[in-house]
Amino acid sequence: MEIDFPQIVGILANFGFPVMVAIYLLIRFEKRIEGLTEAISQLQQFMKSKL
């Protein structure tokens, strides 16, 4: 089974873009999750101080 250049380009075109979008979204969501984790931690400290 021999794969030539047009097939390689086709594979990259079909799978490269979705992979890059997935990586981009994971990076963005990671920042949001870190922010939410920090907010929850602050909320826990606030609730402990009020009780």
Question: What is the strand and helix layout of this fold?
Answer:
Elements: H1 5-50
- Enumerate the spans where pLDDT stays under 50 for 5 or more consecutive residues: none
Give the overall average pLDDT: 88
The profile of the biggest β sheet is:
none
- Structural class, judged by helices and strands? mainly alpha
From the structure provided, what is the oligomeric state, counting identical versus distinct chains? single chain
Number of distinct beta strands: 0
User: What radius of gyration results from the CA coordinates?
Assistant: 22 Å
Gap from first CA to last CA: 70 Å
Q: Give the H and E element order.
A: H
Helix share, percent: over 70%
Strand fraction band?
under 5%
General shape: rod-shaped
Q: How many helical stretches?
A: 1
Explain what the structure shows.
This protein is mainly alpha-helical and 51 residues long. The protein contains one helix and no strands.
